[in-house]
Amino acid sequence: MRIDYRIEHPVALHASFEVAGFTVLLGASGEGKTLLLSAIAGLIAARGEPFDGLPPQQRAVGYLPQGHALFPHLRAWENVAFSLRGARRREQAMQWLERVGMAGLAERWPASLSGGQQQRVALARALARRPSLLLLDEPTSALDPVTRDEVLAELIAEVHQAGIPALAVSHDPALAAVADRLVLMHGRRIVQIGTPEAVHAQPASGAVARLLGLRNVQRGRIVGAPGAQRLSWPEADASLRVETALPDGTAVDWHVPPAAVRLHDPAAAPGDAIAASFELRQTSPHRNYLGMRCGKARLWVEPPAGYELPAAPMLSLPPDAIRCWPVEEHA
Amino acid sequence: MTPAADPTRYRPGLSALPAALALLLLATPFVGLLLATDWRHFGFAHGDGGAVRVSLGYSLIALLPIVALGTPLAWWLARHRVRGQWLVDALLLVSLLTPPLAMGLLLASMYGPYGPAGHLLERAGLLLTNSAPAFILAQFYAALPYYVMAARTAFEGVPRELEQIALTLGYSPWRSFVHVSLPLARLGLAAAVALAWVRALGEFGAVLIVAYYPQGIPVKLWVNLQDIGLDAVYPLLWVFFAAALPLPLALGMAVRRRLS
Fold first, then answer.
1. d(C-alpha A167, C-alpha A244), whole Å
2. Residue A56 is nearest to which of B159, B167, B179, comparing CB atoms?
3. Which residues contact A125 (CB under 8 A, 6 or more apart)?
4. How far is CA A46 from the centre of its chain?
5. What is the pLDDT of residues B194-248, one digit of tens each?
6. Cβ B167–A42 below 8 Å, yes or no?
7. What per-residue confidence (pLDDT) applies to A269?
8. What does the alpha-carbon distance between residue A177 and residue B140 come to, in Å, rounded to a whole number?
């Protein structure tokens, strides 16, 4: 489904992209993402397709706002039955609750449900309206971090099962990682569209890299012509070897993957290694990171397993691992 | 072993003193009533029964236009911001602020037989002086601003998002109002109705000017005092409390129960 909306107030915003499967619109806070959903749902004045000019009650959207917005005066099944009519509305509501695995809690009041349970009831309520498009506002924001991935997996499975295109807006890279399609927004503009694999492989800019949650996105400036270039990194007061086609003096966002950063003992460090001091260790079941302080900046390093950190470590950044994106000076 | 003091338990401490004093001051006039009532010769003056019927009956009738017209206004005020809104707010405040006697005079000058509105209405057969409609008119003006203020606050407490969700679920704005806004504001609206009831029933000044007849309880209290004396006031006052209190008390208790 093609979304093409133009908003004038309270901020000017134009967004045009395709929603297919579970599509995530990733953008920082204040980009107007919620506003875009409100516009599509017809809750604020805006022009665009689909549903142009229709009042909200005639737009076939299933809207799941942040915090789920269940009606507190209605039980779970009554929330789901809200858009249903006729004698069989309770029966139908129970079927929807069954689908999202919530039939056992049908008689509960919303306040007694967990964030994930509320979300499933809200999804059932939205699906019961038989929408042609699902709109989800920050679906991961109200979830318990421990169960989040599971709840998210179920949500996406249910969306796929329903076979309805879904547009989720979020600033959460974890949600972006599970999308079928990713739309990135920066400066109130769409800056990149693609599958998560494609976007992760080639982020279009430093802003996109930051939105994707990449570690080690820094600011710098290219010094010298292609072939004999260095990257000036003022925050660490360092100069790094790089290989780019960018002209001398270009201001850049640059990134180096934590796994590519080499740690050295001072005695064996290459000539242009940067002095660093250990700041913190981040240990998770999947990865271990070291947070290293370089001047005013922090660089994340993913050391090899069992690595012993020397007392005064030095860091080197392989030129072919550094990716640079030019930035506009005022940005 | 003595149980450890629960640090989270509220200890009344110093705040209990002024609170108790406030309660005592509130209770004092009614203790006075209790003491002053001549319980052995408890009896009613001529016409007291009629006054009770007039007060209760017309106050109930007055609640209908107050709720029917005040609720949409309160909702509109809670949900819309328009240029010149301060004028509406000022109008409500002036209505609250006007001394009841002055309000009666204003009503008489507008709806009385020589007033522009009164003149027209009288030709249409509606007499708004010393009549049942005049009585209800005075109560309406006395209670409406209180009801609107309280109902507006009740509607402002309803999350707008829930009304919008109802729209996205296919409800018209009217159905969203009936099925979402009204039920969610019901506790505050109950309090507003109770407040309007108390105001309408107890109104003296405005009623005195535009509807000396038919006599409701407040005016009859005044008449009893003038014609008979203090002793004829107390029995009617007891009846007034007995008649006026149950509705707001029950509504208030329902609200407290719901909140606790």
1. 36
2. B167
3. A62, A70, A79, A80, A82, A83, A96, B169
4. 25
5. 999 999 999 999 999 999 999 999 999 999 999 999 999 999 999 999 988 988 8
6. yes
7. 84
8. 62
**Chain B contact for A82, CB < 8 A?**
yes
**pLDDT, position A135:** 95
pLDDT at B46 over 70: yes
Q: Quick check: A73 and B167 CB within 8 A?
A: no
CB-based contact A55 B171, cutoff 8 Å: no
Single out the residue of B193, B222, B224 nearest to residue B205, CA to CA: B222
Tens-place pLDDT, residues B158-204 = 999 999 999 999 999 999 999 999 999 998 999 999 999 999 999 99
Q: In chain A, which residues fall in CATH 3.40.50.300? A: 2-206
Note whether A106 and A77 are within 8 A (CB).
yes
The Cα B122–Cα A46 span in angstroms is 51
Which residue among A42, A58, A63 sits closest to B165, beta carbon to beta carbon? A63
Helix (H, G, I), strand (E, B), or coil: what is residue A263? strand
pLDDT score, position B31: 95
Enumerate the residues of chain A whose CB falls inside 8 A of the CB of residue B171: 57, 82-83
The answer on pLDDT for B50 being more than 50 is: yes
Number of Cβ within 10 Å of residue A65's Cβ equals 22
Q: Which tokens hold the place of B172?
A: 């018209």
* Chosen CATH of A2-206 out of 3.40.50.300, 3.50.50.60, 3.40.50.1000, 3.90.226.10: 3.40.50.300
Nearest chain A residue (CA) to B175: A57
Domains contained in chain B, CATH given: 44-259 (1.10.3720.10)
A239, A215 contact by CB (below 8 A)? no
Once rounded to an integer, what is the mean pLDDT over residues A116-132? 91
pLDDT at B113 over 90: no
Token pair in block for residue A1? 């489904």
Tokens 């005064």 sit at which residue? A312
Question: Hey, are the CB atoms on A69 and B162 less than 8 Å from each other?
Answer: yes
pLDDT of residue A118: 92
Give the residue on A whose Cα is nearest the Cα of B180: A71
| Exposure on the CB side of residue A327, measured as CA atoms within 13 A | 22
